Amino acid sequence: MSSNVTINSEKQVLLIRAERLKAIREMASSIAHELNQPLSGIRAFAENLLISIEKKWEVKDDEIKHKMSRIIEQVDRMSEFIEHLHDLSNNEQEESVINAYTIIKASIQMIAAKFKSRGIALKFPSESKELFIKVNPFKIEEAIRKLLYNSLDAIENFTVDRYDLPKSVVISLKTTDSKIIIEITDTGGGIEQNILENIFDPFFTTKSNGKKLGLGLTIAKQIIEECNGDLQIISNLGIGTTAFLTLPLYKKNV
Ligand SMILES: Nc1ncnc2c1ncn2[C@@H]1O[C@H](COP(=O)(O)OP(=O)(O)O)[C@@H](O)[C@H]1O
Ligand SMILES: [Mg+2]
């Protein structure tokens, strides 16, 4: 598979910067979504308890305990999310040794609501062992999000009657002796064989709504290669697509 990622003019560099800024705006809307959900939950539990007290209804201790714990759970969820945003704004350039599961979880957390609202199941691996990589985690997250957005577009644009087909994006994590491979598989419409070699080219897009610049894969590949990794895509027309994001495994005790 050839990639030909060449950014060859000042204008292209500016457009890439604009695309990355657009990604930040998109993320702001996802953040609003993501915070709204726990806030609505907290409000509902608190309001329910307040009404019970005002109306002097008998409320069992267990029920109060349950509602209070749910409120605390939701607050913790928001805190974790906000903490991550804080890291994101402070640490943009830093490389660190980090567990690959943590990066996957963080990339998903920012956009999970978008998948949920479109009825797309987003599955990801639960942490089973420590798999470290030495990268700027925020860059890898950005690359993963670009791939996830492509999967989301592919599923949304796949218009065949698909009542028996699942709408899903599955992320899995594999390893070799020296590498980790993050695989992202979707059940979108796939990619025509004859354009497969163009998809990493700057400004190559098949999306005609004018909103897409065709820079997602260019940027994702650039980021992964900067981290000494590799990005490949294979696809089956009408069945789906898998992206393979490979990064060097970091061995802590060597
Ligand atoms: N998961 C996918 N399923 C189907 N087609 C894909 C997928 N990922 C990428 N593509 C194809 O590659 C093209 C380039 O992707 P990208 O660089 O992200 O640009 P954009 O999303 O702006 O079109 C897309 O327009 C689409 O044709
Ligand atoms: Mg894209």
Give structural notes:
The protein is α+β, with helices and mostly antiparallel strands and 254 residues long. It has two domains: 83 residues, Signal transduction histidine kinase, dimerisation/phosphotransfer (DHp) domain (Helix Hairpins), CATH 1.10.287; 159 residues, Histidine kinase-like ATPase, C-terminal domain (Heat Shock Protein 90, 2-Layer Sandwich). The strands form two sheets. A five-stranded mixed beta sheet has the order 2-4-5-7-6. It has a two-stranded antiparallel ribbon with strand order 1-3. Helix 3 crosses helix 5 and helix 5 runs antiparallel to helix 6. The longest helix is centred in the N-terminal third of the chain and has 45 residues. The site of magnesium ion has 4 residues, from helix 5.
List the helices and strands and how they pair.
Elements: H1 10-54, H2 61-90, E1 96-99, H3 100-109, H4 112-117, E2 121-123, E3 132-135, H5 137-157, E4 168-175, E5 179-186, H6 216-226, E6 230-236, E7 240-248
Parallel strand pairs: 2-4
Antiparallel strand pairs: 1-3, 4-5, 5-7, 6-7
| Topology pattern, helix = H, strand = E | HHEHHEEHEEHEE
The CATH superfamily of the largest domain is known as: Histidine kinase-like ATPase, C-terminal domain
- Per CATH, what is the topology of the largest domain? Heat Shock Protein 90
Total beta-strand segments: 7
Shape: globular
Strand content: 15-25%
The radius of gyration over CA amounts to: 21 Å
Instruction: Give the averaged pLDDT, no decimals.
Output: 86
Bound molecule kinds, no repeats: adenosine-5'-diphosphate, magnesium ion
The proportion of residues forming helix, as a percent range, comes to 40-55%
